[in-house]
Amino acid sequence: MVSRSGVPMEAEIVERLQESESVFTLRLRLLDEQQRHNYRFEPGQFNMVYLHGVGEVAISIVSDESNRHLLNHTIRAVGRVTRGLEQMQKGDVIGLRGPFGRGWPMEQARGRDIVIITGGVGCAPVVSALAHINRRRKHFGRVAIVEGVRHRRDLIYPDRFARWQRMDDTQILLCTSEPSAPWPWHTDRVTEHLGKMDIDPSGALVLLCGPEGMMISAARVLQELGIDESSIWLSMERNMQCGEGFCGHCQIGSYFVCRDGPVFNWTEIRELLAVKGI
Amino acid sequence: MGNGDDPQFLPLTQLERLLRSLRDAGYDCIGPQLKDGAILYQSLESIHDLPHGLSDLQSPGSYRLTENQGGRLFDWANGPSSLKPLIFPPHENLWRANKGSDGGIEFSSYTPDIAPLAVLGVRACDLAAMERMDHHFLRPEKQDPWYRKRRESLLLIVVNCSHPSDNCFCTSTGTGPESRSGYDLRLHELDDGFLIDAATDRGEEILQKLELSPAAQQMVEEAKEELERAATVQGQAVAVDDFRPIFSGREDDPIWERIAERCLGCGNCTAVCPTCFCHREEKIPTLSLDSSTHQRVWDSCFTAEHSMLHGQPVRREIRERYRQWLTHKLAGWHDQFGESGCVGCGRCITWCPVGINLVAESAAFAVPEEGVE
Lengths: 278, 373
Known about the structure:
Number of helices of chain B: 13
Strand order of the largest sheet of chain A: 10-9-8-7-11-12-15
Oligomer: heterodimer
Radius of gyration of chain B: 22 Å
Strand content of chain A: 25-35%
Number of helices of chain A: 8
Largest sheet of chain A: 7 strands, mixed
Shape of chain B: globular
Distance between the termini of chain B: 45 Å
Strand order of the largest sheet of chain B: 3-2-8-11-12-13-1-14
Largest interface: A-B, 42 and 52 residues
CATH architecture of the largest domain in chain A: 3-Layer(aba) Sandwich
CATH class of the largest domain in chain A: Alpha Beta
Number of strands of chain A: 15
Largest sheet of chain B: 8 strands, mixed
Structural class of chain B: alpha+beta
Order of helices and strands of chain A: EEHEEEHEHEHEHEEEHEEEHEH
Radius of gyration of chain A: 18 Å
Distance between the termini of chain A: 33 Å
Structural class of chain A: alpha/beta
Shape of chain A: globular
């Protein structure tokens, strides 16, 4: 019998980075040595992050899976728990349960061109996948990263984009729908720029995350470009409270997003995404 | 009766002995009793507390008790309470976080502190519902320890149902009125006593202490006839067991809107449903914030909060919430667990304040109206 994770693990904030006005990253270290030793995650999985006395929130893991010492979470302060987490400083202790869910299909992605399309803070779930690819760069084909933000101030990880751009055979297309100077990149929505990707559509594998409307539009354009729909993967968001498929909040159709996802193949979820309020 | 050993006969005058044997074996006992105008499961001190001579009249949105002439104890269909609160209570403490003076947080799990509990008067539909809850909370790859602890504490004494209400449809869901497995002890009430048999070692131990004689063949025949009558008398039946092909592609069918015009979104149906498992997780901090208890609380997909994402509900309309409930119960459940989430108990129909009838509403999809398709 395997029991559910039960109680959270203590995690100390080792470093806190302000990514944008409302987005911050917590670099965390599990305090218990055994837990630290046993903890393994896959790119695309998430933790339930606990702020003492306030509550838990599902946040994707953005660190490199090979870093066995530190776990990173990039968080936008929007709700009760995340605004509280925003106040936390280096040395403070929070709780973590996880990792939960199905991550990106990194094994299937091997040897193929990779397309990564994100919107806003939606890019967090793909960051650990990028670290995975970067670490094994020669095992993957060309990489195209298309990131859409509404406004310049919403762009996070500028230094990472600079680093990713230095990776071999890697193309970065940054777009904003509300341009303001100085913005050296593209304007309009991400879907307007997918045709510029320098990849082989017939063999490419796509990682999508961001607002559902953006993912639906992007999936349509990608198929028009010749990418097979079964090669499109996306990370979904729903209300999550237990993270382990028990509480029922994250259901979409027959799926529990927390355990069947959060990463889904487009063919698994396209009909559901077409229905309003499902 | 079913496929167990030949039943024995427990005279009505010996029913108290059954209760005593259960207590002697270390069980607290609960059983059906009249309370607040309904038959509810309560702590059972004596068989004199059982609902003697009571029956019920149920229809959509209505539940009334009536007196009957026969004087039986179990001559009624289920009231609002099922086994659900016993295995999945409305509030369950999961864990506690204590803030240490060093800034750390000490996490500790709660374990339900419960004595073995014997439940007298369980119905077949509720037994089936509990098995469905088992499939959710005790998944092969991950088990819920709080549920498991409560589940394992139960000794289940079913009483076959010979008095289904007008809202019952367990024959069509294949979950009643006879209990065929999953019980410890099974009774079938006759006018002057009960047929009784055991399906588990724990049940057998209790049975042996009663030192009963085998039931007469005539009694067995009588029970069989009563069960056949209870199975055929049910006034309604679900159109099919698996609604997946029927609901498929019907997400925007106008039928949903017509239901939503009546539905109050109150969540009564989810509260009385013996298989609705949704719960939210809440923090209950002490005033000083030194300690905070993490509790799970029943939730309902009829609330806006249930689907809240980035400050907005995914399911904004009652139409979408009713659709979520019904399609999950009758269709999605098959994908998730290989069976229906409905056991035909009829509670959602009885306790709906506006009398929305799951059987009738789902049937409307099975028989497409002109111009809808």
